[in-house]
Amino acid sequence: MQKPSTTHIAFASFIGTAIEFYDFYIYAMAAALVIGQVFFPASDPSTQSLNAFLTFGIAFIARPVGAIVFGHFGDRVGRKTTLAASLLLMGISTLLIGLLPGYDVLGIWAPILLCVLRFGQGLGLGGEWGGAALLATEHAPKGKRAWFGMFPQLGPSVGFLLATLSYLALSVWLSDAQFKAWGWRLPFIASALLVGVGLYVRFKLTETPAFATALKQNKTHAVPIKPLLKIHLRPVLLGALAMVVCYNLFYTATVFCLSYGTTHLGIARSDFLGMLCIAILFMTIATPLSAKLSDVWGRRPVLLISSALAVLVGFTLSPLLASGSVVQVTIFLSLALFLMGATFAPMGAYLPEQFPVAVRYTGAGLAYQLGGILGASMAPYISQLLVSAGGLAWVGAYVSIAAAVSFVAVLLLGETWRSELL
């Protein structure tokens, strides 16, 4: 097979994460808007929201399992085939969620099956990011590793924008009754078409040079997770902690704020989704900017400065969100998502640089997904509890603490930008 161009490689690493995160985000938005009402018995809105956020968290528990399972094959068989398999699993799970009857039809089986499919989504996404990051960085020219590693990092912002626009369009075109009855399912069903495009692009790839060399020289491990945990446990754990700020900023701004804004502040769903569309543009701008700077200055300075600013942003959550002002709420969302992009972009290179090629898929993927458990899986749920117990100031403190944890983790990990991906 002819070696793919750098443009094809960049697009292939981007398209898969864009599709997978689109799938993931449409569930996040559905959890904030309708999942509790459709899949759980009638009760007060707060209880339904908490149940929906718990199902949201299930996928984050599955993601490290997916990182280990798909990482095993990615470090044993190769990046290309493993990436296609992870995308297919994610797509099938998402489609079936869109077709799953609610509690009124299936009773208790509705939330049970929903949790199973949500676990499938998590498994697929758990295997996606590590492979996409390696696809980009192991093909990257010298001195441009973070820039190439940025393309899978762009996938989440584009996937989120597609998801938000989908629900915004449905909010404009459908009544609340139509949206609850069947409209929310359309983005899930539409994901099948996107998965087809992603699979076509992925199957036209060749193996990365670093892994092809390792395979040829018989330098792979029979069970990659064993040497990873024995020799490289420190970067796995610190890498996970370094990811906490990214996840916490994102899911606080998008899932918790969406739920709080529409239920407590009285902001119309279509208006809030429009505000998120504006805010996500700041994340999209920050991603290539942060990646470029980390190729010039190093990963560590960019991550430390961005995490420090995120600590300060936590203090702005309460006054800006509590104002109920469309302008002030949009400012907070934009600040949070800009810093999410700034802390997220260098990770496409920073995490793979922590591990040797024979355990890189498993190591980078596991660190990334463990960060999801710590920073995002329970973030909307914890924020909901905090706002009930102490108000929005407690949620802001939660954001600041998460950012401080990542700041310390990056300090301990050190700099890697001049290392070779051998």
Features:
single chain, 422 residues, mainly alpha, Growth Hormone, Chain: A, 81% helix, globular
Short description:
The protein is mainly α. It has 20 helices and no strands. It has helices at residues 6-33, 35-39, 45-76, 79-99, 103-106, 109-137, 145-173, 176-181, 186-203, 209-216, 225-231, 233-263, 269-296, 299-314, 317-322, 326-344, 347-350, 360-377, 379-389, 392-413.
Fold and architecture overview:
Helix content is 81%, strand content 0%. With 422 residues, the protein is mainly α. The chain has one domain (6-413): Up-down Bundle (Growth Hormone, Chain: A). The radius of gyration is 20 Å and the shape is globular.
Could you outline the blueprint of secondary structure elements for this entry?
Blueprint: H1 6-33, H2 35-39, H3 45-76, H4 79-99, H5 103-106, H6 109-137, H7 145-173, H8 176-181, H9 186-203, H10 209-216, H11 225-231, H12 233-263, H13 269-296, H14 299-314, H15 317-322, H16 326-344, H17 347-350, H18 360-377, H19 379-389, H20 392-413
Helix pairs in contact: 1-3, 1-4, 1-6, 1-7, 1-9, 1-12, 3-4, 3-6, 3-18, 4-6, 4-9, 6-7, 6-18, 7-13, 12-13, 12-16, 12-18, 12-19, 12-20, 13-14, 13-16, 14-16, 14-20, 19-20
